[in-house]
Amino acid sequence: MINSIAVSPAVPTEGAASADPVADRLTRVLFGTDFHREHGPWRAIAASRPFRHRPGGTAEERLAWTYERLRAVNDSLADPAALAADPRALAALHEWLGPVDPAFVTVAGIHYNLFLGSLIDHGATGADADADSGPGVGSGSRVGSGSRVDSGPAVDSGPGVDSGLGAGAGAGGGRDLTEFLAARHVGTFLCTEVAHGNDAVAVETTATYDRDRDGFVLRTPHAGAQKFMPNTSPAGGPKSGVVAARLLVDGEDHGVFLFLTPLTDAARPLPGVRVRRLPARFGSPVDHCLTSFDGVFVGRDKLLAGAQGRLGADGVFRSDSANRRRRLLLSIGRVTPGKLSMSASAVGSARVALALAVRYGGHRLISGPRGTGQVPVFAHRSHHGPLVEALATVFAMSLLHRTVLDAWESRTAATTEEAERLVAVAKGWITWRAREVIVECRERCGAQGLLENNGMGQLLAGIEGAITAEGDNVAVHVKAAAEMIFVPVPGSVPETGPAAVGAAEARELSDPAFLDELVAAVEELWLARARRRMVHAPGGDALARWNAASGAALRAVEAHAYRRAAGAYAAAVAGTGSGAGSESGSGAGSESGSGTASGSGHEAEAGTGTEAGTGTEAGTGIESGIRTGSGGAGAADLLCCLRRLFALRWIDRNSGELLASGRLAARHVGELAEAVEALVARLAGHAPTLVEAFALPEELLADRPIAGPGYAGTYDDPDGAWHGGAGDGAPGPG
């Protein structure tokens, strides 16, 4: 499995390390120890001139920028096929560039993952792929008027990766991907239809085998079978797509397969292909279209064949699977890496929103208590509380995403089904949490968060797309819920252990093991309830039985995601070398375990001063400077606090169920709120350090006015009377 993607050596990838050792240590916790290779190139591209924030522009201009960016990125790659073959690199692309341009990652994800990835997975090779693939490595990729994605000093970006699709690889008779690898032609993916979204197995576009011409004829039988949403207009240049259609051979329907189909030239659809633009989508513009086919012929080599099915030289269809649904899932297997990319985009977007909100909270000064002058709005618990809780959630999202990536890459034949389910559960949970975080951050930024130039609206629009893309969240969670109920997997339902009925009174909320047991118990309780409801539902009506159980089952899926995220937190804490002993021995542990609030000292800790020069990049004036020991120990302490805050908030939400089942004692219910308050107070002053750990390039934030202390200057009027020098405010002559 490929672990990194090589970009042109001229792309600078250094600069992620923070001057703050605590933030730097937390960055390594969030991104792993191979930040330079896995994330550095994409971070550098996010900071490059073609990706600088450009508010304004017409929809068509912004669409043109999207495709310019696609080619700029492609020109910076040492091997575009390696990117398409590497889910981890695709996820990193989305993690860093999704917050910058959601439309770009939509187009790039379709081109590299769904289109090129499907072709590569089904045996495509690129004849002479390196022969004419645009500018050579390090030559620079120009966008617009002389801007470069790979400007800056040359650095060692790590060894290149070999996709196996180099020069001459097409001699074995594979497809020539040269134009697509060079991004002179753009690839797209046509699966869903007007009448068929999550039920892709029922799509109605047909591909009928024509024996005389030894190929397939694509037709759209009615309006509901039009392909819905793919970016198939001529915008961005000539396009081809992989089209999901029912394979008909001698009148027999063999299920849904993919067919490589040319769609447009640089100006218009090709004969037999009809493309109509859909109404503008909320958010970043993409050329979403309705696409239909009227007798479009493609050769037999355009069928993406494999174990799911193939057409022999004798014109006879053969398949290793008799199940049509299974054939479809094998054909569209690239949807799973797509889910990973949606999670990555959501994680990156939530980080950017949170960094903006924390910075702005420190820059925005308001009147303090009587006689204290002005204080940052962040100094108020009502303002920083939701943001601190969002920090605990975003760290959880990041750690779960890394865990899921690892599980997907290390899967075996025996664990693939479980890994696919985990990817789906995480995609739904992460994108939903990202929406909550971004909405909260937008609100904390007030009217400034509504303005296009501050980027919050774009982040929210991008998340709405991710929630629906690669499988609607509810649909993928429903599938996971059914599997968790009907197909028990060893270890999928955790044992309650010492948190069993009657044993709770002796346990303390300061004990991380107790919190982990409670988080696991929530999943167990909801699964048990779903199973009971299904058993007790009237027989003979499968839909009624599922409806009776589905509410509890979906809660169980959500709880499963929280449990896996809590497990990722535990692994991260262990990786810092702190262990449970360090956590319970920290100031936060004793503070929250006592069940008493520390609100009396909270405002001083949160930092109510107005100084911006605290030494943090954010310059918010809220950094308290509290540290415990070395940089590593400080990072471990903060990570432990975040872990406990994340767990306590989830336990508090489910405290009724836990209390009723005996997992919590009555005293714990009152202590939960106090423990949360103590942790929020403990973490508030460290918010700048925690967002600095996101390693966001300053160029990305600098284009959003609210990220800097001089945000008010954005609205200065050079012709305003205050620039006239008439200090007394008297009217001028005449």
Description:
By secondary structure, this protein is an alpha+beta fold. It contains 24 helices and 14 strands. The chain has helices at residues 21-31, 35-38, 40-46, 59-76, 80-84, 87-97, 102-121, 178-181, 324-331, 335-363, 381-409, 416-444, 456-468, 473-486, 512-536, 542-575, 579-585, 587-593, 602-606, 631-653, 655-660, 666-684, 687-692, 698-702; strands at 142-143, 147-148, 186-190, 206-210, 215-219, 227-228, 239-249, 252-264, 273-277, 289-299, 310-311, 317-318, 365-367, 374-376. Strands 3, 4, 5, 6, 7, 8, 9 and 10 form an eight-stranded mixed sheet that branches. A two-stranded antiparallel sheet has the order 1-2. A two-stranded antiparallel sheet has the order 11-12. β4 and β5 form a beta hairpin. The longest helix is centred in the C-terminal third of the chain and has 34 residues, at 542-575. The termini are far apart.
